[in-house]
Please model this.
Amino acid sequence: MKTFSFRIVALLLAFAATGTAVADHNFGVGVKAGTLGIGVEGTWRPLPYLDLRVGANQYDYSDNGIYGGVNYDAEINLDNYYVTGNFRFPLSPFRLTGGLYSNGNEFNAVSADNGAIILIGGDPYPADAVGTLSAGATFDSTSPYFGVGFDFTVFGKVGMNLDFGVLWQGSPQVSIATDGLLAGDPTFEASLDAERAELEDELSDYKAWPVVSLGFVFNFL
Model:
C-alpha cells in the first residue's frame, strides 16, 4: 500500500486553512475511502442545492495473475485529483454528481515464473531467451466522472457521504518490453506486438472504473 504522498497531505492542510478563511461560505473538509483509494476532499456550498468539491485519491493494488496468457506480478497504481459539481434535491440526501479527474491511474507488471516455455502472442519461446517482460498501461489524463450520492448529517457539523459512479478512463495505452536475448529479433518483435495487443484488449475492462466510496466531512457551517 502506498501511504499518503506529500501532495495529498499538503492538499488536506490547504483545505483546513481555506476552511478557516471562508467558513462563512459553507465550507467543509473530510476524508474518504473507496475503490479509488484513500483520499481527502474539500466542499464549498455556494447555494443550498449546489456544492463544488475538490479532492485527491491514492492507493496501490497488488495482483498476481495471468494477463495476455503470461503470468505477471502486477500492480494497479491509483493517483488522481478531481473537481465535481453536485446537485442536491430539496428535502433529500440524494444528489447527482458530475466532474473531471486528473487521472494518473496506471497498470504496471513484470513477468513471474512461466516455466521453461512462454507463449508470447500465442507463439512459444524459451523463457530464458525471452527474459523478463515489463508491461505498463496508462489511461486518459483527463477523465469524466458521473454518479449519484447521498449526504447525511451525523453529529451536527459532521456529515457522512456515500458515492456511486463511473470514472471513464478511456482505452488503455499499453507498452511492453523485454530484456532477453530475443529482444530486437523481427519474428519475436512481431509476437511481442501481438502480446501487447492482447494485453491491451484485456485491460480495456478498466476503461470504465466503478467508483464506490464512503466519506466523513466536517462542515465549518
In short: Residues 19-24 have pLDDT under 50 and may be disordered. The longest helix spans residues 186-203. The chain has three helices and 13 strands. The radius of gyration is 22 Å.
